[in-house]
Amino acid sequence: MKQIQDTDKKPILLKVSLLPISVTTAIAPLQPQQEKIISEQERLIRQVKRINQMAGELEAAILELKAIANTLNTQKRYPVLKQELWKNICHYFAVSVPWVKRKPDDSFILTTRKVDLFRAEREAALLAQQLRQQTKKRLASQRHRKNKNGAEADTKSFFKKILVHKS
Asked: The whole model's pTM is what?
C-alpha cells in the first residue's frame, strides 16, 4: 500500500492493484424512450386540432350567449335602466373565430371562420315554411277526397232516384 500525504500531514491509505480488471458487460449508452419522442410534425398537428377544438367551443359559447339574451328578451326580466323597455338586451356584429385549415400539400393556413349567429332562426323559419306547405297539401288532398266522395255519393243517389222513379 502506498501512502499519500495530505496537507494536514495525515497519511491516507490507498489500495492500488496492478492486475487488470476483467470487464464482462459494457455500460449501455442512454437511449431516449420511443414513446417520448414526438416529432415536430405530430406536435403541429396536435396543436392544429387543439386550436380548432377551442374554436368550436368558443362558437358554442357565443351561440349560448345569444340564446340566453334571446330568452331574456322574450321574458323581459332583465333590469331596465331608464324605465323604458329595450328592444334587445344584446346587439350582434359579424363574429369569427380562429381556424386552421390544412391545404392539399399538407401545409396549414391560420385563418378565421365566420360564426353564423342567425342560422337557428333561418332553420326554424325554413322548417315552419315546410310544415305550412305540408299542411296546405294535406288539407287540399282532404278537401279533394271529400269533394270527390261527396260528388260520387250525390251521383249515386241521383241515379238511384232516377231508377226508382222509372220503375
From this structure: 0.53
